[in-house]
Structures are given as structure tokens and as C-alpha cells.
Fold each of these.
Amino acid sequence: MNIVITDDHEIIREGLKKIFAKYSDLNIVAEASDVKELAIALQNNPTDLIILDVSLPSKSGLDFIKDIRQKFPEIKILVFSIFPEEKFAKRAIDMGADGYLSKNAKPSEIISAIRKIESGGKYIKSELLEKIFLYSPKNNTEKAHEILSDREFEVLRLLAKGNKLTQIAELLGLSVNTIASYKSRIQEKLNIKSTAELIRYAIDNDLVEKY
């Protein structure tokens, strides 16, 4: 299996390479620190699986899943993220990922996830399957952000990271007016009045990194 590791932290990439080095059939054909490098790697290397981080410079890995699915539908995607499964797993799978795993996972679990995906399955922790995928909309524990569209969710995260509307527009290849409309819809859906409240909401719900 040919693997491309995409993570902006070198220590994570090196750690994964050491884990995979124990398995003769797991070949690291390229590394990438952002989606631009990933796109180049996919063009230049035969790839079976991408290990993809959510939080990358510029465009996030989560938002790039649909691009990969359109251009390389045969490639498998395992999202490997600092964010816990219950926060992002369902959205990542719905967007086209084949599995989701927290960076808190043990090396053996990473290999188990790869083997499950390699065999044509989807990987997510078994104890979360019922909670995440058999969820009833009537359950009062649903978080408001779960009703956001994929694009609204990505704009929310970029806003929460401190990006201005012009910066987000450039990152996503959209107009400033379009981003402003997304922001208004997000605030309406979340019942939030200000950008400061929006940032606090994202931090409180573990939707962005806490530095």
C-alpha cells in the first residue's frame, strides 16, 4: 500500500514513518505539510492511502477531502487529527473520508484503521458508532454547529482562527460578499451576535485548537 502522509508537524510525520517501517507492505511514497504539497504529491506518486490532518496551513484537510474525492476517487483517506472523534468523525466520513482517528490513538490502532480501510471498510471507534451514526435528531444533546453545512463549518473554523473575511475569501477561492453571507448564516444558525461570541463558541466546543 502506497501512503502519503499529510501533516504540518514534522514530528507527527516522523512518528508515523517509524510505525509504518515495521510493515513491509506499507510504503511512504511522499510527505506533505499542506494541501498544496499534497496535491503535488498525488500528481507525482501512485497513492493508495492518504493520512490527512484536519488542521493544515491555509486550506484545511477537512475541506480538501471533497477535492480529493473528485480528482482521485480511488484513493482512500484516513483523517488523523488532534480533535476527538465525536467532534469531527461523522462530518469527515460524510464528506468522503474512509476513516477518522484521533492522534491519541495507539500505534496498533493506527494499523488496525489502515487494514480496515484497505479491505474496503470504514474505520471509526466502535464505541462511537451508535453515538455518532445512529444519532436521533430528537436527542437534545445535539450541538448547534452540527446543522451547519460543510462550507459553513469550514468558514466558522477559519473565523475562529482569527482570519478576516478577505483572507477566508482568498483561501477558499470565493468572494468576500459570499463569505460575509456565510458568516451571517452561521451566526443566525448558532444564535450568535458577534465574531467574539463565534470564536468563543468554537473554542468551547473544541472546533479549533486551543493555544
Amino acid sequence: MSDSQSEMPSMALPCLERDFYARPTLDVARDLLGRHLVHEINGERLVGRIVETEAYGGIFDTACHVAKGRTPRNDVMFGPPGHAYIYLIYGIYNMLNIITERDGEPGGVLIRAITPVEGETTMIAHRGGKRGRELANGPGKLTRAMNITLATFNRHDVCTGEKLWVEPGIAVDDAHIIAGPRIGIDYAEPKDRDAPWRLRVDPNFLK
């Protein structure tokens, strides 16, 4: 996608509703691919197409934050689906997750990468001039590009269509989805380390 294409305004659509997120986590992780993550800042829409996700499956998934129990940090994962769970790694990188499953049954999807659809110039400025593949090809990069922080959006309801939400975007069929092991979970048990719960859109699909 060229820079000029990514600056073309997208048509605003209703945000995804709670029923979308109130489903098995892996299904939501798959179906978020191709959707549009939107952050509206002072009337400007920053929009990124979700191209990579990771599923985290609750108390029986040793890679998931809730595997060792409920804490003030992960409490939001036990709440209603369709809320943001944001945490910091290395004290500086904001990681955006969206809660899934049913109220009281924890699960979440980490948004790992986006490609710009709208507001790319502002995203580049947020990233200190980084552009192209380096702009938002990691979870900490995309939150910085879109100015999504723990202080602002942890526990935010993404089903309200206010400030931060997800729009329908485009459909991605199974033939264009690449599945593989999740990243950075060496602490998890082998069965969870090897689970193909990292999902990516085939780059050729977007060309």
C-alpha cells in the first residue's frame, strides 16, 4: 500500500459490537484480522488495519496473564468482553489487548501489528519518523503510532464507538491467514509455547 493510498479517508462504519468479542478467543483473534482499529484524537481519525494478532486463552493457558490467578493488574480480563486490557513491558511499551469470552471467563487477543489506513502522517510523527514496515509491525510500535496508552485506555469499552474502537474493515479468508507459535512466551509450558495462536495476514493478500 502506498503512502498516498493510506492517507485516503476511510468510510466510518459502526464499531464491532459486544457479541463479536463474546466468543472463543481464538475465533476472535482470527476474525479481528482485516478489521480497522480506530483512535479518534481531537477530530482526527488514526486508522490501522489489523494484520497480526495473538490469542491468550485464560486460566488453562500458561502463556496468559491469568494462569496464576486474578490480580489487580489482570482483573479486567475477568470482566465483560469488548474492553481494552493494556499493560507495559520493559516499563515503556504499551500492549493492547481486547477481552473476549464471557463475563467471568478470562481471555484476550493481543493486537500485534497494523498497516496504516488513515492518519499515516500523524502516526509517522508519533514514531519519530519511522515509516513503512517499521511503522507499526509490532505491538509496542502500533500503540505508539496510534498514541494508545495504559493511562488513557486500560479498561476502555471498545464497543461504545468513542475514542478507541474497531470497525468492520475488510474480510480475510482462511486461505490468506498464516498461523504459528506466539512470540516471547518462553516461560509457558511446551504445549502452550507451540500452540499456533499467532495469526497473521499473508502480506500478498494486501498488495
Amino acid sequence: MTSESTSTRQKILETASQLFYKKGIPNVGINEIIAVSGVAKRTLYRHFPSKDDLILEVMQHRSAQWLCWFEDAITNRGKTAKERLLAVFDVLEEWYVNPEFLGCPFINAVLEIADASHPAHHVSIDLRKAIRTYIMQLASDAGVDDPGSFSQQYLLLIGGASLMATIEGNPMGAQYARNAACVLMDAS
């Protein structure tokens, strides 16, 4: 792929990502993506043969970006594994209060695409698994007795905070979850 082709592909991905996030995946058509990105229909279809292919690529792209941001933000906020486990909720709260936050794009995608077999649905599941692996490693490093069970319980707190922010528009779930995580860590 030439650098121009890569740049065009990236432009389509970014445009579709922004439109899907702002308007919802089912509410954005290929013609709107073409108009906003300024590419020809043929060019879009050369890179993405169908809307489903584009949705999948957008979700994979977003997932990789988000996970990198999330892990870097946590690493930068804590020196020890325990500090990093608690920093998770500070990072999430900062994300939730950002004026551009329109809900968790991965929760949104699962809700918008009712078909659980759709590949984009699996991207959200894979992201959850990656977060769980990261939390499990932090829990192990922090000396938690059963990092596997702890990571599942911790993910419930993350999910609850994210749902509260996404559905209710309330970022306070992050602090409620942080308080519960302190109790959970003390019990481990």
C-alpha cells in the first residue's frame, strides 16, 4: 500500500469513527462517510468492501487506540501495582467528564448492533478480555490472592461505572467504583 493509499484509508477510518461515535453506527450511511471524508465511492469500497467491513475496522482501530491510551494513562498515574489499580477509576472519570465523551464506544456498539454474531460485537468482547488480562497482571503484582476472580469483580466495577457514564451521563460512577475497589482490594 502506498503512503497516499494508507493516508486515504486512515482518513476514511477516522471519519467513519467520528460519525459512528457521534450519530450511532446504524444512523450513518456510506454516502455520508464519503461526503464527509471527501473520497470517491469507489475509493471507499476499494479499502472497505462493505459497511460491515468498515465497522469492524473502525472498532478494531478504536479498540487498539483506547487500550494503549488506557494502559499508558494508568502507568503514568501510579508507581505501584496497587496505585495503578486505583488509578483506573481516576483515568475513567477523566474520560467520562471530557466534553467529547458520548458514552463508551464499545458499549454503544454492542447496544447499536443487536446481532451478537457481528464481528464488531466480538471486538468489544476482546477489548474486555484485554482489560481483564491487564487488571489480572496488576492484581498479581499487587499480591492479590486470587487475581483471576479479583479481575472479574474489578471488571464489574469498571463496567458499572462505564454504564453509568454512558447511559445516565453521570461520571460519578468512577468514584463509587473506586471506593468499592478499595474494599475489594482490602478483602483480598
Amino acid sequence: MINIKDINRSGEMEVFTRVVNAGTFSEAARQLDMSPSAVSKLIARMEARLGARLLHRSTRRLELTAEGERFNSECLRILELIDCAERDIANVSKPSGLIQVNANLPFGLHCLLPLLPDFFAAYPDITLNVELTDTVVDLLERRADIAIRTGPMKESSLVQRRLGESRMLTVASPGYIARCGQPQNLDDLQRHNRLSFGFHRHSQAWVFRGTDGQRIEIEPKGNVLLSDGESMRRSALAGLGIARLANFHIHDDLQAGSLVPVLQAYDSGETEAIHAVFIGPGQQLPHRVRVFIDFLLDKVSAQLANGRV
């Protein structure tokens, strides 16, 4: 007795319709990469199970019986339904839907937003809701799928993917230097207006390397306290003081000469890490979020390679 679990009915239907279309067992076997005897035996098993002859066999050509005509028509309909179902599932598997993204202002404005045309070209069915703020948000509270954070990362239950790191640079505008002078050493820096943030950070200290290789930290101190990195960049461009900013944030300003490095002889090589953080684990991420993170990894790496980050 045949166990119904052992019957591949859709596969048998595919063979049967191929035989009908080809007109011979040998041609159908060639198309299916099977032996003619295997095709013949499969059709014979189908007829035995169904209790009806489906084909009249002759030395020249196969002809359908009345039962075979009806069965062939139903097989074609069922196989088309299977194809449609598979196409529908394939379309669903394409990344689609809404992604809630949170990023700090500098990364969002100077890195993320310029990349989005390429992302939407690759994934047109995804919608991004982008929130830019330098305030560290609670992903659960904001219902954010992913956040981009720069600087030291605190221990948390969030999954972190390192996108890269950006060199920290001490810069000022040519106008500020013309008005206040170029600091020649770290003692000179103490007499300059050093732009700082008005909110608590892990550390606001600017890190330098002394002539003897010793690590030297200088706290920023001046008459302007700022709420976010983009405001600091614009304040530096306006000539309000000296700032410490990441290369990805001011790359275009340096290229244009609207900001220039200062105290390069004391550069410590300090970098600021850039992370994508999300509620994990990674294998449970929606497909749309996973492709967005992979996209960022690829593009930020490319920016690193050409010096933009």
C-alpha cells in the first residue's frame, strides 16, 4: 500500500503535464533530466493510484484519454496556483515596511541623510521615519528600531554593531585665527575660547599628546555652551571659538577651508566610535531592519576608505 506521505503530488503533476506537452516519454525525460523508463513508471503509478488510464500509448505518439484531458487541465490549474503562491511569498520576503531610526544631529545630517537616495534605490518598499537629536533616547519608549550613537558606549542590554570610527580634530575658522591668533602650543590653548557642550557627557576633555608622548587632557572652557554637535560646528564656522569635532562632521568644511586644524603637532590620534544599536538579538530582527544595518555597515566602511569618516 502506498503511503500518501511518500507521494510528491505536485512533482508528479509537473511530470505528467510535461509528458503531455512533449508528446513522448523520451522528450519529457530529456527536459526533466530523467530516464524515459523512470517517467513511464511514474505515469503508470499515477494511473494505478487514480484507477484510470490517462494516456493511450502508441509507437508514434501519446494521446490523452477523456480522463487524462480532465486531469491535465486540473494539473495545469493547480501548478499555476502553486506558482502564484510562491511568487506571493517571494514578494513578501522583499524588505518592506516602516523603520524608526534615531540618530544624533551630526551623523544624521552629514552621513545618514546623504546616503538615503542609494538606500531607497535598493529598497523602494521601505519607509524610514528619521528622528535627529543629540539626546540619548530610550529605544523602547520611542519605539525606535535602530539608533546611531557616537562616542563611548555604556553597558546595556542593547545589541551594538560598530559601524566605524572617526578621527577627532581640533579646529577653528580662519576668521577666528585672524582675530585671536594661532595657538602654538597647549599653554596657548588655555587662553582661547574653547567651545563646549551644556549637557553632561561621558567626558568633555580634549585629548592631546605632549612632546614627550604623554597623554594630556584639557577641559573645554569658554563663553558659549551648546546643546548639540551641529550647533558647535556652526559656532566654530561663525568664528566663536575653537572646537573639537569628528572628521565625518567637518570633512567638507576642511576641504573648503572654512575650518582649519589647529595644534596638529599635539594630535593624539583620538577617534570617536560610531555604533548602530538596536533591541536584539540580531537573528530576530525584522528583515527590513537587518538590511538597513547591513547597508550602513557597507556605506560607512566606504566612507572610511575615502577619508570622509
